[in-house]
Amino acid sequence: MVVVAILAAGKGTRMKSNLPKVLHSLGGKTLVERVIQSTEPFSPTRKIIIVGYKSEEVKNSLNHISEIEFVEQTQQLGTGHAIQQLLPHLQGYDGDLLILNGDVPLLRTETLNNLLNTHKNNQNSCTILTANLAQPKGYGRVFCDHQGIVQQMVEDKDCTPQQRKNNRVNAGIYCFRWSELAKFLPHLNNDNAQQEYYLTDAVTQVGKVMAVDVEDNQEILGINDRLQLATANDILQARIKEKWLLAGVTLNDPASITIDETVEIEPDVIIEPQTHLRGKTLIKSGSRIGPGSLIENSQLEANVTVKYSVITDSFVATGTRIGPYAHLRGHAEVGENCRIGNFVELKNSQLGDRSNVAHLSYLGDTTAGTQINVGAGTITANYDGVKKHKTIIGDRTKTGANSVLVAPINIGNNVYIAAGSTVTEDVESNALVIARSRQVIKPEWKQKTD
Fold first, then answer.
1. How far is CA 275 from CA 259, 295, 311, 379, in A?
2. Peptide bond before 443: cis, by omega within 30 degrees of 0?
3. Diameter of the chain by CA atoms?
4. Who wins on pLDDT, 100 or 202?
5. For residue 383, what is the DSSP state?
6. Among residues 141, 257, 343, 394, which one has the fewest Cβ atoms lying within 10 Å of its Cβ?
7. What CA–CA distance (Å, rounded) separates 390 from 379?
8. pTM of the predicted protein model
9. By three-state DSSP, how is residue 132 classified?
């Protein structure tokens, strides 16, 4: 049995933000979400988040994750004090406690599994994650024997010159046998310069303690400021891009491309430079995205092309071409083999198969059929100043250039709308609509001057 406790109570002053530190985003997820995610594969008995600063905000941000418990640390008096708050919540518990930090978001599940297996197989009272750093200055040192048994832990400022040559440092990740830790927690003291209760004081007091070195030192990077957040983002992006390159995705100029970890991409997709993929996005095989495009929370079916365009919260079916300079948003849905061209915007609209909106048009709150052609400059006037209204366009209908369809309106099948028309009434199928003033020419007319 393993209970996970995640420390997420701190303010994060060095972030210089009103947002709690653990709620800053990395790769499409908050820092604390990423820590929780790393524990899910080994199915902890309980997952407890220790919250403090803006606790309600942290709780609300995690309400989409099931089986999460919260424990309040009303005063932030150190890591030991945070774990003391678990005493009434884990009475009678006889398993292990894995302690993680909500601002250390790059830990891999494999690393935590190795820590847990070492702890269990060696029947340790405590097992700590350590790292061997080329530049360990500022980190507490961990001294072990040849079997990895911890003999001593010394803070950097307290090390002798000889001790500072030791490169093994404490990563701040612990697995304790809870029954032994619980006995010692009430006896922690704050006899230090910061007057805080440190969990490290308990490590060498609970019995056999073993260190496990992390293979990739980047995993233990903690986020304390925006610079470290940017560094973590670079590390995460390198991981994500390596994954997709090895999975058969082409990334042209990977350094200029960013991909959230929540994105899914099928093989034989080509991602061009300056393209950014965000949120719950799925891109299927044969599609070519970019250059210069943003796709967020959208699904693109097979063989879609997107150039210099923005697509958010939308769906694009097989074989459709988007852009350049198109904008799909607000749950737009585009059918198969369509063309959405230059400077076209679709908002909360559905467009049927084999339809074209080639340039300079806006369709908002519109349901359009198959094989329609929208002429340049056509717009649906969907807003009356108070609320939005619906436009319905039937199959094989064509609008001339600079047409305005004033919603609410229903245009039938096989309708032709003459260029420059402002259509304000429903149109039956198989009709020609001319809704414009008759042209007047006055020969040899000249403006009068004073």
1. 9, 8, 12, 28
2. no
3. 106
4. 100
5. B
6. 343
7. 13
8. 0.90
9. strand
Q: What percent of the chain has pLDDT over 70?
A: 100
Q: How, if at all, do strands 294-296 and 339-342 pair?
A: unpaired
Query: Rg of the Cα trace of the chain?
Result: 31
pLDDT of amino acid 262: 94
Q: Which residues are catalytic?
A: 359
Q: In whole angstroms, what is the distance from residue 79 CA to residue 102 CA?
A: 12
State how beta strands 391-393 and 366-368 pair. parallel
209-213 and 398-399 beta bridge pairing:
unpaired
Record the tokens describing residue 184, joined without a space. 């010692």
pLDDT bucket at 450, cuts 50 / 70 / 90: low
Which residues lie closer than 8 Å to 156 by C-beta, 6 or more apart?
A: 136, 137, 138, 139, 140, 141, 164
Distance CA 233, CA 307 (A): 26
The closest alpha carbon to 28, from 238, 289, 233, belongs to 233
Query: Rounded to an integer, what distance in angstroms lies between the CA atom of residue 335 and that of residue 337?
Result: 7
Mean pLDDT of 223-232: 96
Helix-then-strand count for the chain, H and E: 7, 41
Nearest-angstrom CA–CA distance, 426 and 444: 40
pLDDT digits (tens, 9 = 90+) for 86-109: 999 999 999 999 999 999 999 999
Place of tokens 């030192």: 217
Mean pLDDT, range 428-432, rounded to an integer? 97
pLDDT at 302 over 70: yes
Check if the beta carbon of residue 359 is closer than 8 Å to that of residue 342: yes
DSSP structure class, residue 439: P
| Residue 202: its H or E element | helix 200-203
Q: Which pairs count as long-range contacts for 236-243, CB under 8 Å and 24+ apart, including other chains?
A: 236/26, 236/27, 236/106, 236/261, 237/27, 240/27
282-283 and 299-300 beta bridge pairing: parallel
Alpha-carbon torsion, ordered 137, 141, 145, 147, to 10 deg: -90
Q: List CB contacts of 446: < 8 A, sequence separation 6 or more.
A: none
User: Is the pLDDT assigned to residue 448 strictly greater than 80?
Assistant: no
- Per-residue model confidence as pLDDT tens digits over 20-72: 999 999 999 999 999 999 999 999 999 999 999 999 999 999 999 989 999 99
